Amino acid sequence: MEKTRVGIIGLGKMGSAIASRLSRYGFSLSGWNRSFLPKEKENSLNIQIEGSISALSRSAEIIILSLSDDNAVTTVLGDLCVNNLENKLIVDASTVRHTTLSDNYGIIKGSGADAIDAPISGWPKMIENGTAGIYIGGDKRLVERYRPVAEVLSNRIEHVGKLGSGAAAKIVNNMMLASYWQSLKEAIQVGIKAGLHAENILNILSKSPAANGSLALKSEAILGRANNVTFTISGIVEDLTMFNETAESLKVKAPAMQAALTSFQEYQEAGHGDADFISMINAAIREIERLE
Hints:
The protein is α/β, with parallel strands linked by helices. It contains 14 helices and 9 strands.
């Protein structure tokens, strides 16, 4: 059976990982990116790059947005929805506010399209391996339409509720992760000041209920023995800014998020915006060891 043709708007690290995975599983792909995409990358992803959003809208039945922030999503939706999108499905896989799609739902429906939010939890490598999580908000009928695509990308698909619920679930999930890394930084600092070694602390935590699914994957980077970039400092600062603004808009106090934002923001301002997010903890370890 012929697979649905998928369009991907935004071919950064996440969008490219989505394209790579879908291409390997036989999906025909169209893509559009705001910046130039080298021919070598186009060929490696096995994707047809369109010259405009309008051209992509004509070629694809399901259109995935993998964009950097709320402004980018709103801008792209404005450009996309001036086209006739009858029977098209827009899937927002970006990390954005839970209200972004609903705020733009009038122009989406006016174009003839339907929409769901389906942000992805995980790093590009997890997408390429099919182990990322996907949290979906929207009508069940539309979720089932997207499911054959989602099942290629993820082994953890959760339909969590109405439009916007997927984005809300992603925010909650990432707030927990951000607070975990902030707490880990503080705990390691206390441990070192009390006479423990960072490696021993991580060894203890990794075997205890205090571990999470990412700690073992990031332990070498925390100790400064690996420097592969899975998610940048700039990226987590952008997300944390949005998380704090979301909490404030909902009148929820979030001191842990504010502390995490301060830690990552200070490290970014020291010139490390392109480094992997976990390097902030390694820098904190090195600083406190130097003082000891």
